[in-house]
Structures
1.
Amino acid sequence: MALTNEILKQKLSDKFGEQLTEWDEQYGLLTLRMPAEANLKVIQHLYDAEGFQFLTDLTAVHYPERTGEELCVVYHLHNLVENIRLRLKVYVPVEKPDVYTATKIFSGANWMERETYDNLGINFVGHPNLTRILNVDEMDYFPLRKEYQMEDPTRLDKDDEMFGRGGSI
Amino acid sequence: MSEQTQHHIQLAEESLAKQSTTLNLGPTHPATHGVFQNIMEIDGERVLSTEPTIGYIHRAFEKIAERRPYYQVTPLTDRLNYCSAPINNMGWHMTIEKLLGIKTPKRVDYMRVIIMELARIADHLICNSVVAVDTGALTGFTYVFQWRELIYEIYEEVCGSRLTTNIGRVGGFERNFTQVAWEKINKFMEGFPKVMREFEALLNRNRIFMERCIGAGPISAERALNYSFTGPNLRAAGVDYDVRVAQPYSSYEDFDFKIPVGTTGDVYDRYMVRNDEIWESYKIIEQALAKIAKLEQEDPTQKDVFYAPESDHYHLPPKEDVYTKMEALIFHFKMVMGEIDVLPGEVYHGVEGANGEVGYYLISDGGRTPYRLHFRRPCFIYYQAYPEIVSGGLLSDAIITLSSLNVIAGELDA
């Protein structure tokens, strides 16, 4: 029987129970949130038991207004046999952005995690070489975090009120 | 005077005891076709290990995109894989269409397919002819580039520019294809097979070329999957994953085409997979032209369909209307000033780029710009396997491996 979002959701809830939350299915892509300390358990289970052996994408998002869980690491996994995708999310606080590395499961996660570290400062615990990859080594901040504005904030002619997202960000 | 004071050259510790040579290849080396630096440890002609450094043309597109209205992000996508910019443009437009729930008419889908497959042919022509150049055969390169030139003329006729195309709009195209564009496409369809066959005759069964490529830079299917390879490089290793078939977009399900696969994932397999894909793309364009002709024959009004009617709020009106009609002017102004909000949502859309799955992970918070936009760039992902692929091989094999992987600096760095 073909694997569908409903079956997968049922299987994962049976296995992990309350640990997996915030189920969503926007645009047909099953999305779930897993706790930061159990991320490798879930990914390894998906790899071994459900055939999600392809890491499509790994990135992170910064939500400054979500206090205590500002940074969100997003995994896109793909089961190539059943042709079904899955999105996994892990939320971590910006003060202590520790997430276990997926490099032991996916070799391809190596540079994706380095890029995510470089841009958003996620600390991938256990990564073999967690250094900056795209930006210069001397950079001492994480540019894709929302506190860094694109434009020079002192320029009055580029006021956000007129050009953009009203004020703050 | 002692020997010590005569020589002031400071050598690194252990450098005299070391038996291997450190070779700095790049960042700007004529053999690497782009800005790639590799610090290699070589033993004679053998590569022991290599350490790639990337980021020389990092332009922070993901950050820039957070301040740009949606249609202004399109020129950023041009500059990812600049050898096949239309695929990136249309992939981005389709992502927004998915977010907004816009369904494009069949004719638009087929027109997009024509342009995307032309782009794929152009990209594969560059890659394959450059592999030939790196193995010492310059003739094929100069020969097929005339036809790449014709593809660029078709882009020019459709959208006005050649390399970084900014082709199309959300919901379709900015204008209908002109008569000249159709004529140029037909000219390409007539003349290209002969040239391609000659290019194949030059290389495919060429003893020198085969000896040079077979067994160079191989990767197994398991390793390729583990490294998240996609596109021709994955298929050369023997995995038949193609987004056009797995998750069809732009009506690819209507077309009849094959997915060529290799077995060993070496330079020759990658070359042959791309070579066969050029023919498959050619077949797809043939079918698309026939399908458009059939649509127009059944319903002559189809001739004027070049964008989805429901995308009106996101589709810049034609320039002549902007100058003469009030509504068009208002819409144009609102769109350019970024007054048009997009629905909130989270969407991932992948298209089969010339090098693999180009993905757009877009989070919209309902404003005029993306809240977060991440590009899945196939080159970035598979270039990390380069040290593993070339270690133990010859230095000259490392060069042709780099060309046959078709690593594009723009896509690598974003």
2.
Amino acid sequence: MRREVLQELLRLAEEEERLVLLTADLGYTVLEPFAERFPARFFNVGVAEQNMIGLATGLAESGMIPFCYSMSTFATLRPFEVIRNGPLYHQLPVRILGVGGGFEYGSAGWTHFGLEDVALMRVLPEMTVVVPADSCQARQALRATWNLPGPVYYRLGKNEQQTVPGLNGRFRLQQIETVRTGEDALVLAMGPPAISALNAAESLEKEGVHAAVGIVSCLSPAPTEALMQDLALYPLVFTVEAHFVSGGLGSLVAETIAEHSLTCCLQRIGVSFIPRGRTGSEAHMNHVAGLSEEAIARRILSACRPGGSANG
Amino acid sequence: MVNFYRIDLQESAPEKKKRVMKPDSKAIRRIILEQSYRAGVGHIGSALSVADILALLYGRILEIPGAEAPHRDRFVLSKGHAALALYAALYLTGRLDETALHSYCADDSLLGVHPEHQLPFVDFSTGSLGLGLAYAAGSALAARLQGSPRRVYALLSDAECNEGSLWEAVLFAGHHRLCGLTAIVDNNGQQAFGYTRNVLCQESLRDRWQSMGWRVAEADGHDVNQMNREMLSFREERSRPQVLLARTVFGKGVSYMENEIHWHYWPMNQDQYQQAIFELERTP
């Protein structure tokens, strides 16, 4: 996803002189093409995320469009107050590229897990929050949002190859992209776990469970109308995200259900504990957290058949 | 430096002629005292401490032909709690009207204790310390990228130098030789809950800035002419950002406030206000 986004940035930068790329010392083997093509508009600001966002605030106030690159956790948690007081409050077009949501840096451990970035960004009104599910959608999302007047946060996955079947790169602000239809349950997924969610839904066909799958890539501004329409059609709804269960997609859906008196039952599938001392591959960590394809399928099945076996 | 952008406010705004005057230190201090007394709010000592610095900036240094003029100089009041001194300077240079000035700290006023960018001629909202120099460095970087002649000034407090984020910006500006950036440190030796020397020793400020690639000058922060000489010399600098370490007295001009921590937050009562105005009027 990172490389795809960088290719799009290169294309935009050819036409748009206001575009600048800042990195807090990350992006080795990814950002070089930009640095080589536009050396005057590329700045490694050093390991200094607060300063990166502060600089971007000053740059944007003078009419530039700065993109700030780091890992999702470093790009949002460390400079959170700067984001709030700088680009957000001043309504400036600062773009934050946070790489690696959930356990994408699984073996790097707790400090590198991106588990609350979406919550932190989503809590800020006027902050556009974009979480593409695959590379193709990331490119489309960037095209649709790079020129918005206010700040934008993009949570970008590391995986370049995986694609969500049926998504075909579709991205629209405040919309949900349906990739599978079904009438028993609705599964709403955010980011790359959409692939596991979709596979889980496919695997439940043999159990006679027909689950629809929708991709939520625009977390803010919230796709409220689209959610209301979809949620009204299903008795059971699941959210799937590589994020703490509070503050992200699950919370967004819960808020929508509560505020619009919808009657569906919601189960939030996400990370619900502190993975203290746990490291490993992304697949392993997703397994540990209950975000594997099999675990998602089990959750859906046990909810669809409350009397049946939870083990499918 | 081109002077093309400087405008004569008295000529361009005849209707404001009566109240457009030189933003001298005494006039700034009088407004600080009047407005803080009227509004019943504090941060008086911090504002008095920078009155001469703002008189210098708004009287002789900043080139700001219009609130939105793209090449206007940028000024970031990074020590946002001295906003009342900034409002006074804006008022005295015809950039803020009297009604607005008298709304200081009133409900729904744009003039709060900290500056607000919704107010014309204020480019950055500040208040949380340690962020303003990064904004200013970004602004100076943009000027370089855009080939703009504008210069960028940031006014910091010495206590603000406690903030790690400030030093991130110092390092960046030094490394990138942002010669269009000037910082001024209001070195009054006080912070909200003690004297800086007792909180975190800052005696080597000069060495710290210098070691990070900045040109450093020191001056009496209440001597406008002395500071002006340093600032004019800074304008000739072509390879380094510059910092003026301005030695100031917290609460300068009101004897009972000078160097007293109490006046970081406290408002004046009637007797104190009359005493303060009396002392101010006696000063030359």
3.
Amino acid sequence: MNRHTQSYPRFLWTALRLSTDGSARFYVWMFLLTAVALVGVNAWAHQVAQGMELTGMTDHVSWGLYIANFTFIVGLAAGAVMMVIPAYLYDDREMHDVVIVGELLAIASIIMCLLFVTVDMGRPDRFWHIMPGIGRFNWPISMLTWDVLVLNGYLLINLHVVGYLIYMRFLGRTPDKRWYLPFVFLSIVWAVSIHTVTAFLYSGLGGRPFWNSALLAPRFIVSAFIAGPAFVIVLLQLVSRLMRLPATPGAIRTLSRVLRITVLVNLFMLASELFTIFYGGGSHAASGTYLLFGLHGKNGLVGWIWAAIALNVLSAVLLHLPASRSSYRLLNLGCALAFVGVWIEKGMGLIVPGFIPSTLHEVVEYVPSLAEWKITAGIWAFGLMVLTVGLKLALPVLKGELSASKTGSHADAGSAAE
Amino acid sequence: MDPKRRVTLKVLGATLGAGAFARALAPIWDWGKEQSLDEFLQKHYQELSKADLEQILRRLEAKTEKEYGKKVSIRDVRPQEGVEFGYALNLSVCIGCRRCAEACHIENNHDRSTNNSYIRVLEMKQGSLDLEHGNADYDHAVPAEGKFYLPVQCQQCDNAPCVDVCPVQATWKESDGIVVVDYNWCIGCRYCEAACPYHARRFNWKKPEIPADEVNPDQAYLSNRIRPQGVVEKCTFCLHRTREGKLPACLEACPTGARVFGNLLDPDSDIRWVLENKRVFILKEELGTRPRFFYFFDG
């Protein structure tokens, strides 16, 4: 134990140095992200001081862009585990090498989720009220308290697995399976739980017929397994190109296979949902009508949702073209379209129509304000910073370049990890 | 690059970054100066001792006087034993004049600039109770031909979805059936607003504006004191009045006598007479929320 009290601070110090070393391109990238993040911080500071009147939200549409992004990114975090399942459940060797990429994406995503919840709070200064044991935690009846538990739990599990693997490599020791494998399997179950709980936040509300559907949680899981793999497929190519690592065609092939199934299941579920809403009709169909066609002359979401449907259908077609198996360009295009399609469908296309018409059937529309866009961009930028730094730390480490015995002569590890 | 130079540049970059961060956060520091440490550390209403509460009420009175320029009295009014409130509304006589909404606005110290009220009156098509045919934004002489009027406010549900979903127990049902909010405990997540099937909750999107001479100085901690920015509020059946034997402001303002309020546990009360002699109904009964707010038609 005594050894660790000395080597762990040294490890952290090396990590700090490594994560801030890089090429000019790295510094430009981080500088840009910092700038966007700071714009977000400033917009948020104004929002706290002046109140949430700076947003486009009202008592009619009381959740907007923040909660839409939150919902989508919980899915991204859960979908990242799609790397872990083949690697460990099916013992896919090549996946083992890159599984840490998925875990880092999960970490960055959860941090973004927590930030989106924070910026949506009217009184962030009272955050301690929601801390178990210190505040008044309304568990188990409030689904939001479940979300606090599962999101933070997922963050800790992934931080532990990633941190442990990196630290062991730093010490030059073989990781002890007993210290990480149980957590890896736990993270698989946990990933499903974070998105299920997030769906239950909405589907449990009897007064909101648009959300009050048993299909919501399965839809969330399926669309998570679009967003996660789509992002990781592109990320893996970027990582191997920018960090000069060997390409990982096997991992990309596995993830593409997953994606080809989930894009279709997602469309099927959307169609089932729409059938149920519209076949019977009546006032239950009001939100769906507003979303797809507009209601009482108001049609703020019509463009969004048809864009989402078009993107989702197009990505499904692209990903099933035989050419997408040989052409990374086509595959990447399919991934990008699917990612944006799900972002709209699950964000603006799911959260906002839950409020329109309102529970008294008033049709009040919502348009995100400039402040909301700034804050949203800022959080995405910060998430990308976390991911970039995490990848920088993890990859040279997993290539064996960082270890306690080598820390002295180390000038090149950083530049290799640009 | 020379490692020493690199470290120097990094330290410089970090310093600049930290400086920019502090600068970006500047509006929060100014806002923070208005918040007191006592307020930050204040415990949940149900955990406060009598002495704690006394101190808090005085602090809130001083704060109101400083910020709104009016001397007010803020009391802690508790529920009475053997009382459960119920409210009924006669839709046959309501003419949709919205005096109730206006009385609520004044009584409960609502923000003047948004003309907020806990009551929304829907103009409904005769022959339908479907809210989809309602309109809350009517602007013409009332009552209009072929219409009836449905005022909706907090239904004080016995099985209240808003209470269940609150992550911090900032809202709860009191023993007399009134659902209240501790405005100093609410974190402003607005989950209750999403959960309420009756559009009964309001959020303070900004700090309420009320001219000093319009502030109602008779206030209670759990009801009509001026709410802070960033928290949720709702109708409390005017508990600062009703728990002391008076009637809700909306009832007193009603020119037609459509509103009936009283103790459900008192067999001689008017509300009991209505429940026993009229065919009453509740809104969205199928949701299982069990409202304490009843509607009826004559005849």
4.
Amino acid sequence: MGIDYTVDELICVCISRQVEDGEALAQGLATPLVMAGYLLAKLTHAPNVVFGSAIGNTICADGAPLSISRIEDIWLGRAIALTSFPEAVCDVLFGLQPKEFFRPGQIDPYGNFNNIFMGGSYERPHLRLPGCGGIADVTTYHSRVYFYVPRHSRAVFVEKLDFLSGLGHGHRLPDYPGPRYLVSNLGQFDFKGEGGRMRLVSYHPGVPVEKIQKKTGFPLEIAPDLHETPPPTAEEVRLLREEIDPLGIRELETLSGARRRRKLREIIKKEQ
Amino acid sequence: MINKVTTLTEAVKLVREGDTLALGGMTLYRRPVAFVRELIRQGTGDLTLLAFTASFASDLLVGAGLVSRVRSCYFGMEAFGLAPMFTKLATAGEVKVIEETEASIAFGLRATLAGVGFMPGQGWLETDLLKVRPDVRLVDDPYSDRRYVAFPAIKPDVAVIHARLADPYGNAVLGGNLAVDWELTMSSDRVIITAERVVDKLEERADIVGLRVTAVVEAPGGAKPTSCYPDYPLDSAEILRYVETCAGGGFAEYLTEFTNNSD
């Protein structure tokens, strides 16, 4: 007897299962799926993790339910320590190397990625993206680079990037091991293929491997122990819905345009 | 110490055409929105906008046509999606983006703080950022065979920072979310503090030291609809209204309403 869950919940659960107890976890801007996954880990197998948040550059031992309007309360209100943003960048990140899940605008077979623009040329792009934050900085040395892709498509998984703003495998930097893991709405991947190529490790329940290949813009390697992603447990789903994210903020990352704005309206109404 | 209290109208005159203008705060938190409103009214243009992370206030400046160049590592609306006017104008090539990352801004400001021409860092190596920023060079480590990126010094002409509290000399309390504001204060030629309240004497320790502050302006609610933690939270409904209005092609009307607003 299966339990009901949504694909955003499955992504959160996969993220949670990548978390090890006692480690430091970094959260970037506007990444509620990641935060929900981290909180799920904290409430299940990893009670001793600490959170580093870009909101207020805080380090916190305690989490709180996801919020949009009161996100500073969550982080600044619970901070063990805080720094300025330049201090976090120059003085903290290298020393702590917190695990971080990045969301690529485009990603190539080796885990190189792009958050600058899509399509056209740099001077005249089809779409300018918000920018790469600190990705181009930390992907030169960071030992724990992870990915999540809420909407797996050939627009995201491309043979050749329009712009390289985050390093994957195949570079010449001796201290950077490259990305380790990727979860999308279709499956889980590692980078243990030929020369650091992306490999399908597990397909989410009900998703045929052919579909994953079809939605990926380059030939996928398949891990020898390919299996089905273990689905969320009833308790994991309950924690996500009742304790971690009762407003459903995590779903925003799977939506765009008018549907995203409609969901935002619902969330903000409930929050007020 | 010198009393620097002035009006918003006078403080905005410290910004000149062509300046590099740095906005304090982060994305949707403690941004100098009242200042931006008055700046749009006065119409000082051809600005280089430096915002570590840029969002609502920066998007209004870009949409109003006052910004020629953007220096930022993230220009977006966080949970609310893309920044409508930046995305539109940067996609059309009508505003130039000078690519930055967290490290290029942080190390660049620190170089100015230290009085040197650059700070070395590991960021950007092997990325395309070096191709679109040919002014950013590599440097040999004199102690090993490594090469690093020499992030060039950044020196803003004007920085504007919204604080919870300030005294007449420019000492200011930020309320926890420190952003880039100490570094902006110490690196910029002119510094303007707008504050929820200006008091004769601060009762708590200041986050910003007034020695480098040029002007102090009392601006209650001056960060709205962005937050001023812990005094007021982000006005999410208003940010959503902005995004929705722009999605319907209504930026010009929003801007008119925004600049006519007396807050």
